[in-house]
Amino acid sequence: AFESANVGTWDVVADVSITAGNDLGNYSLINSTATAQAEITPKDLLIEITADPKVYNGNDEAVTLATVRSGDLVGTDVVSVLSENGAFESANVGTWDVVADVSVAAGNDLGNYSLLNSTATAQAEITPKDLVIEITVDPKVYDGSADVGSEQLSFTDDRLSGDVFEITYSSAFF
C-alpha cells in the first residue's frame, strides 16, 4: 500500500512471503516486507459552465456558473471552482456561445487534481427587450378633418442609448 492516498512520491510497503513451489525448502526468507518508492500523479479535472439567458441590454456580459465535470472528483473529495468574465459572442438577440474564464478556488483535495482548462464554453439565449413607443400630438386648428399631419406627431421610446432604428406609422387621427 502507498504511504498516502494523495499526490506525491511515497514509499510502498508490501508484505511478502514464499508459500509454494518445489524449491521452497531451498530458501529462507529474511524479510517479511519489501519497500519501493512510487508516484501518485494528479487526476485530470475539467471545469464546465452553464450560462443564464438574458433580455437584450446592449452588452455581451453573461452570468455563468462553474461546475466540475461529472466523474472527475474521486469519492468525497471537494474542490471549489469559479467562473468569471462571462461573455456572449454577440450582444444581439439570438442563441450564442458564452465563454468564461474558469479557475479552481479552494479545496482540501486540490493538490490531487490537475486543471485541464482555463476557459469554458456554454450556450445561452439573448431574448428581445420589450419596447414602448409613446406619441405626442401637437394641437391643430379645426379644418373639418380628423387627420393628423406628420408634422404634428413626435415619437419617443425606451430604446437603449446608441441603438438606431426608425419609427414609422401607417395612420393617425383624432
Describe this structure in words.
The chain is mainly β. The protein has strands at 8-15, 33-40, 43-45, 47-51, 54-55, 64-68, 80-88, 94-106, 113-115, 119-127, 133-137, 153-157. The strands form five sheets. A four-stranded mixed sheet has the order 5-10-8-7, with no helix packed on it. Strands 1-2 form a two-stranded antiparallel sheet. The chain has a two-stranded parallel ribbon with strand order 3-9. A hairpin with a 5-residue loop joins β7 and β8 (94-106). It is rod-shaped, with a radius of gyration of 35 Å. The mean pLDDT is 93.
What's the SSE blueprint?
Layout: E1 8-15, E2 33-40, E3 43-45, E4 47-51, E5 54-55, E6 64-68, E7 80-88, E8 94-106, E9 113-115, E10 119-127, E11 133-137, E12 153-157
Question: What class do helices, strands and sheet pairing give?
Answer: mainly beta
| Biggest beta sheet attributes | 4 strands, mixed
* Count of separate DSSP helical elements: 0
Uncertain residue segments: none
Rg is 35 Å
> What is the helical fraction, as a range of percent?
under 10%
Oligomer: single chain
SSE order: EEEEEEEEEEEE
Short description:
By secondary structure, the chain is mainly β. The chain has no helices and twelve strands.
Structural descriptors:
rod-shaped; mainly beta; 174 residues
